[in-house]
Amino acid sequence: MAWMVEVLGWWVALTALWWVLISTVQPLEVLVGAAAALVAALAVRAARKAVTRR
Amino acid sequence: MNGWLLAAAVLLVAGLAPVLWTMAVGEPRTRLVAQNLSTVLACPVFLLAAQGFGRPSYTDLALVLAMLGPAGTLVYARFLGVLPRSRVVLGTAWTVVPATVLPLCVVAGPGRAMAKLLVIGVLVVAGNTVTSAGTDRHG
């Protein structure tokens, strides 16, 4: 279950970063950002595992 | 022409022009350092231009450059075989970038715009601290 905590942490951080970087905060933009951040968080977790396993 | 654009012009003429010349005619190791320095100088130019022209979208250019600049330097260093250590790049990153980002933050006022400027500043400084560290042990 540690991986879920890690993915959640990355998802929160990436969504916050997206929220800072967009020009106007609208519900659709936040939704798109959250979806993209979720995919990215999973990718980050996979990448970290790939690197540390070596 | 306001103060922001004047600062950007000074950075371009006094900073970027000599660096571009060095990129054209120097030794390979010097050219790599010059390429690195050019990205360090171009980011504040974009940020100042965003404020000077009143076009906030220019900060997105600085953001993209902050991420791609150091990565590009590392790609070229891979081709060259060595990443030269550079105090010039380190010094420029730690002086010019805060000197541009902090006044811009004051003008932007607290909010998301300021957070974005700080993110860009941190990315530029951190990325170029890494690329200026170098893999060789000779200055």
TrEMBL record, chain B:
<dbReference type="InterPro" id="IPR007208">
    <property type="entry name" value="MrpF/PhaF-like"/>
</dbReference>
<feature type="transmembrane region" description="Helical">
    <location>
        <begin position="91"/>
        <end position="110"/>
    </location>
</feature>
<keyword id="KW-0472">Membrane</keyword>
<keyword id="KW-1003">Cell membrane</keyword>
<dbReference type="Pfam" id="PF04066">
    <property type="entry name" value="MrpF_PhaF"/>
</dbReference>
<dbReference type="GO" id="GO:0005886">
    <property type="term" value="C:plasma membrane"/>
</dbReference>
<keyword id="KW-0812">Transmembrane</keyword>
<feature type="transmembrane region" description="Helical">
    <location>
        <begin position="117"/>
        <end position="135"/>
    </location>
</feature>
<feature type="transmembrane region" description="Helical">
    <location>
        <begin position="32"/>
        <end position="49"/>
    </location>
</feature>
<protein>
    <submittedName>
        <fullName>Uncharacterized protein</fullName>
    </submittedName>
</protein>
<feature type="transmembrane region" description="Helical">
    <location>
        <begin position="61"/>
        <end position="79"/>
    </location>
</feature>
<dbReference type="GO" id="GO:0015075">
    <property type="term" value="F:monoatomic ion transmembrane transporter activity"/>
</dbReference>
<keyword id="KW-1133">Transmembrane helix</keyword>
